[in-house]
């Protein structure tokens, strides 16, 4: 299966409860991650994370599926 370049966008509420779970999942796919940027929005009490990775469609589906199962985490992805 061919690798694709993908951007995953995460909006996280309740960072104290979710950050560890999000980071564990991202670490699992660390070898596929090209870059990551996180921005806290303190006034809204949310964090925004963008992750760029190169992976198979199956891996992309797996990571977005696992992240999407975490309460207070919204996930969207786009790939080429």
Structural class: alpha+beta
Task: Kindly provide the name of the CATH class.
Answer: Alpha Beta
> Could you state the order of secondary-structure elements as H and E?
EHEEHE
Number of strands: 4
Q: What's the tally of helices?
A: 2
CATH-defined architecture = 2-Layer Sandwich
Number of discrete domains: 1
User: pLDDT average, as an integer?
Assistant: 96
Strand content: over 45%
Gyration radius, in Å: 12 Å
Characterize the structure shown.
- The two termini are 14 Å apart.
- This protein has one domain (4-79): 2-Layer Sandwich (Alpha-Beta Plaits), CATH 3.30.70.1150.
- The radius of gyration is 12 Å and the shape is elongated.
- The longest helix has 14 residues, at 15-28.
- Strands 2-3-1-4 form a 4-stranded antiparallel beta sheet, covered by helices on one side.
- Helix content is 32%, strand content 45%.
- It is α+β, with helices and mostly antiparallel strands.
The gist of it:
This protein is of the alpha+beta class and 80 residues long. The protein has helices at residues 15-28, 57-68, and strands at residues 4-13, 33-41, 46-55, 73-79.
Name a few traits of the molecule.
single chain; 80 residues; alpha+beta; Alpha-Beta Plaits; four-stranded antiparallel β-sheet; 2 helices; 32% helix
Topology:
Layout: E1 4-13, H1 15-28, E2 33-41, E3 46-55, H2 57-68, E4 73-79
Antiparallel strand pairs: 1-3, 1-4, 2-3
């Amino acid at each position: 299966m061919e690798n694709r370049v993908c951007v995953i966008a995460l909006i996280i509420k309740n960072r104290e409860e979710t950050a560890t779970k999000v980071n564990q999942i991202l670490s699992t796919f660390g070898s596929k991650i090209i870059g990551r940027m996180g921005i806290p929005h303190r006034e809204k009490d949310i964090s925004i994370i963008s992750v760029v990775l190169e992976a198979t469609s199956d891996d992309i589906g797996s990571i977005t599926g696992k992240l999407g199962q975490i309460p207070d985490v919204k996930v969207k992805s786009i790939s080429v």
